[in-house]
Design brief:
This protein has 250 residues and is α/β, with parallel strands linked by helices. 26% of the residues lie in helices and 21% in strands. The protein has an 8-stranded mixed sheet, sandwiched between helices. A 3-stranded antiparallel sheet has the order 5-9-8, with no helix packed on it. Helix 1 crosses helix 2. The structure holds 2-amino-2-deoxy-6-O-phosphono-alpha-D-glucopyranose.
């Protein structure tokens, strides 16, 4: 199902409610591949389980001839206090799911650093983002409506910053760690202003747990308590969800 929904005349969500995770992943990869037709591309990338299938599709596209040599990547976020080579760092995630499988140039990969001592720590990363606005930003969504790691309460004009993760976010992400105690308490994230700078945004969500957040994204009044509501102010958001995540917006 494909529909367009304009909220309060500010923007037009392009919404796809599809039947399976595979269909969601395929559609999202098509949105990315369309942008890759440009000569030089800055791609904002996301982690989490939602985009894994999309990355598989992009790796398949690489094997069929799609190059990534003209891509500069900027990632949304990273945990604070774990090394890049930690199995659950977003750095490891990106290499495992995409970067090591395609021909993107290592010097064009940018992932914020949660260790505070590198060229990708807060201020440097913000300056880099400002100089390289995303042609497309890929987003997942937290069950509490967070985007990147911009938790409820984050200012809409926020830039790259460190935040304390909410309990529910740590619980949601505990499935990737051996215990809740192992889940980092803080993260570094693009701010909401950095996400909104993207020319186009593609948001992927599947499963019933995301249904309320997806509803809020499209219909809830704008509020810092539900970070994704800011997307109503963006001119071009493509929302790609399965039936479960889309059940409240049908
Ligand atoms: C984390 C990430 C977000 C992601 C969210 C949802 O909190 N920082 O960028 O959107 O998880 O993850 P999942 O797709 O695994 O549900």
């Amino acid at each position: 199902m494909h529909q367009n929904k304009g909220e309060k005349g500010n923007n037009m969500f392009e919404i796809f409610i599809l039947n399976s995770y595979e269909e969601v992943s395929k559609k999202a990869s098509e949105v990315v591949l369309e942008v890759l037709k440009k000569d030089q591309v800055t791609l904002g990338l996301a982690t989490g389980s939602s985009p894994v299938g999309m990355y598989q599709q992009l790796v398949d596209a690489y094997h069929k001839g799609q190059s990534f040599q003209h891509v500069t990547s900027v990632n949304l976020d990273e945990y604070v206090g774990i090394n890049q080579d930690h199995p659950q760092s977003y750095y490891t995630f990106m290499f495992e799911h995409l970067f090591k499988h395609v021909d993107i140039m290592k010097e064009n990969i940018h992932i914020p650093s949660g260790l505070g001592n590198s060229e990708n720590s807060t201020n440097e990363y913000e300056l880099f983002l400002q100089a390289h606005p995303q042609d497309l930003q890929v987003l997942g969504i937290g069950s509490n409506g967070h985007i990147g790691f911009n938790e409820p309460g984050t200012a809409f004009d926020s830039t790259v910053h460190q935040i304390e993760l909410k309990k529910e976010t740590r619980l949601d992400n505990a499935r990737f760690f051996s215990s809740l105690d192992e889940v980092p308490t803080h993260a570094i994230t693009m701010g909401i202003q950095d996400i909104m700078r993207a020319q186009k945004i593609v948001l992927i969500a599947t499963g019933q747990k995301k249904a309320q957040a997806i509803y809020d994204c499209v219909h809830a009044p704008l509020s810092v308590d539900i970070p994704c509501t800011i997307l109503q102010k963006h001119p071009h958001v493509v929302l790609i969800v399965d039936q479960e995540a889309g059940q409240l917006i049908k």
